[in-house]
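On clarity, I found the account of how folds are encoded harder to follow than it need be. For illustration, here is how one protein appears when written out as sequence plus structure tokens.
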Amino acid sequence: MSPRAAVVWTPEFLHYDLGDGHPLDPVRLDLTMRLATGLGVLEGVEPLVPTQAPDDEVQRVHVPSYLTAVKSAPEAPFGVGHGLGTEDNPVFFGMHDASALVCGGSLLGAKEIAEGRADRAVNIAGGLHHAMPDRASGFCVYNDCAVAISWLLDHGFDRIAYIDVDVHHGDGVQAAFYGDPRVLTVSLHQHPMTLWPGTGWPGEYGDGDGAGYAVNLPLPPGTSDSGWLRAFHAVVPSLVSEFRPQILVTQCGVDTHAEDPLANLGLSVDGHRTIYRALRELAEHAAGGKWLAVGGGGYGLFRVVPRSWTHLVATVLDRDVEPHRPLPAGWVAHVAGLTGQQLPTSMTDGRDSGYEPWGEGSDRVDTAVLETRRAVFPLHGLDPDDPRD
């Protein structure tokens, strides 16, 4: 394990619970930590225990009236608006405390890096990237990603690259920094014509001084590991290297998996593992090794999320897990008691995550790649038609 890598965790994260039957089931967090422990990934690691982010920190990106609404919602018989009390964002008791704790987790990871105690940190409970300044959205009450980035901007960082690999557009983080050239937001997601929230077009590239610093790469439904990685490498490393960030912040949602019930991309656990390794390499190459990773979406609660996020935690800790490593018998027995689904037997889906570089052949994601490159590359002095850029 890298001596400068931190894992942020508390069982109290499980209190962010939107109710029985809701897709964002906190069991996915519990099963990830159980699996990482069972595989020895966390051996000798003392997780950092966060506290709730105070109101003034949450208000970096949320208006005070919204915090008031979140706090009062569980006791309000007729609702409080602000996107609360909907099917996506039902009200639950302790909602403010649980949401502020998630923010506190991502803030703690950011502080560990900023204050020199770690080069990398991971908070799998974070990644609530849809929350807007005055409303809940897409299962997200408070936007921990934007809160952490805002804090970093006030504590010695003036170039932050945010990369969002969730299947849904990272709209809340983009909105928070849409006119700010200090933050490069990059979102790779399923095409907005085919998936909520319907935003994240290549033409959404920032405003004013921030023009060119919002980057969106929408991918067609069915895109597999090879297509996704082809698109990533055709766009992200060039822009991030040109931007020269001081830290990389990544939202690592795993709802891009082929089995995810809420979306239509075709990635595998093997693809996810390859993505995390690419992000680690990018952080080392372009951001001085500084990397804050948070979780996000992912609704394959038993077969997908625990394996993919165990690979994430292992990658952050430089304890990469061999893909064919068998799953611990105790973990499999525990999960079998929770679901009737057939469970995988190892840390791989048996997929080859190799890809053909952009510009060396033809792939159906090429149109999306070229649209994105043509929208933003010239604003950074890069040639959108030259595969060397």
The mean pLDDT is 96. The chain has eleven helices and seven strands. Strands lie at 5-7, 120-123, 160-164, 183-190, 214-219, 247-251, 291-294.
